Amino acid sequence: MGSFWVEHAWLPTGLARGGVRLVVGDGRFVSIETRTPCRPEDERLPGVAYPGFANAHSHVFQRSLRGRTHSVAGHGPAWWARMFAAADRMNPDLYLDLARATFLEMVLAGFTLVGEYHYLHHAPGGRPYADPNAMGHAVIQAAQDVGIRLTLLDTYYRQGGLTSDGHLPLNQVQERFSDGSVNAWLQRMERIEQNEMLRRGAAIHSIKTVPREDAALIAQVATEQPLHVYVSEQHAENLACQMYYGRTPTELLAEIGALGTELTAVHAAHLSENDIALLGDTECQVVVCPTAERDMAEPLGPIRKLLDAGVPVGIGSDSHTCIDPFVELRELEYHERVDSGERGRLTNTELVNCGTLAGYQSLGWYGGGMIAPGRVADFVTIDSSSARTVGSKSGELVYTATSSDIGTVVVNGRVIVRDGHHALGNPGQLMRRALLAFRGQPLQSSGIRTHH
Q1: pLDDT tens digits along 215-239
Q2: Arithmetic mean of pLDDT, 170-189
Q3: Among 39, 40, 87, 317, which is 20 to 30 Å from 123 by CA?
Q4: 227 and 261 in contact (C-beta within 8 Å)?
């Protein structure tokens, strides 16, 4: 058993003031006491306690692209070529180093849980490593080293893209992503063992890369675990799906029985009114990635309409243009303001839930996402006296704080960040070493085609 004391804490009922004791045991909150003084045995934490944030959509290998692709003009091909080139350089050792540095950046930013959308499975040419899950185990090891909670969303990826004439063949790099069949994917994926800090989830990469029959089979076999899928990320995806299948991606997923409480639609940028109704009626979830979507010249989905339809909305940093939960959350509200011409489209409680509870649920951690008895003891403290936050109401810190204002991070009842520092040391130096090793690695192949 252990205990922490903070002056203010964000609880399910809203902001609690006047002293809050957080008693933890076996990785969970045992009790929450409000309006109470600090006791000698309590660890007193400065700042305001919030539930830990969930990064519900991540591609760690794409962190290597930050600051190197943002000025690329046009829409699509040039960025995709660079992304494929980055994937082509990766091996398990480089993946471990890059994932460790990326996850360290996440926890220092206040993320206590990450969902890794993992499709970089095999060696060049699609040859399995001696350990078929070598790449996945690199991600798992990195999360363990950092102390962040992880859902590994093992992703099925079969084809190279979709046009009105049908699916395209894999390019040379995409061969690394594919297991060749649902059965082969399932056999490899099910060898990943879960533990108190690791959940195994599944993902249908997208309707672009997974034929209808395979997607339907995955929906049947990947039950009782999170199931994520890219949905309507781009206009071109919607158009190809409608021309080939005669329906939107959401309608196609409904037809094959994939929609349901465990299904999370990622991006969901171009939804029809019927799509929104289908997601709400089947109790699906959505994850949006504001900074990454802006970087790719894509809009955010209809956040207010989704919430009104009963669809929880979580956040992710995707390609890691930015790793900062506050930036992502503010984009949700500001996007709605620009579209509607109104302020206050999302309440503070809705914003906090988008950053915490919704992501935990989407990633299969139904015991997390809030500071309450019985929930997993994941929380952060936000400095309310920095140059950015001083004078802010404690309940409005999501509008003024940045990742630099995270002071303490507790995961599973254990302090992993104290006073903004982690045992692994300087995150910039760790990332620099990882990137130097990564960029010194020669390309594994050539002639990459950029269909996607």
Answers
A1: 999 999 998 899 999 999 999 999 9
A2: 97
A3: 317
A4: no
Distance (Å, whole) CA 112 – CA 109:
9
How far is residue 3's CA from residue 23's CA, in Å, rounded to a whole number? Answer: 4
Identity of the residue numbered 35: R
178: three-class secondary structure by DSSP:
coil
pLDDT digits (tens, 9 = 90+) for 417-452: 999 999 999 999 999 999 999 988 665 543 333 334
Beta strands in 102-226 (DSSP E): 111-118, 149-156, 161-163, 166-168, 198-204
What's the DSSP call for residue 126?
Answer: G
What's the CATH number of domain 48-430, 3.90.380.10, 3.40.30.10, 3.30.360.10, 3.20.20.140? Answer: 3.20.20.140
**3-state SS string over 268-334?**
CCCCCHHHHHHHHHCCCEEEECHHHHHHCCCCCCCHHHHHHCCCCEEECCECCCCCCHHHHHHHHHH
Show the tokens assigned to 59.
């591609």
For the whole prediction, is pTM greater than 0.90? yes
Q: Rounded to whole angstroms, how far apart are CA atoms 234 and 319?
A: 16
**How far is it, in rounded angstroms, from Cα 167 to Cα 240?**
10
The domain locations on the chain are 48-430
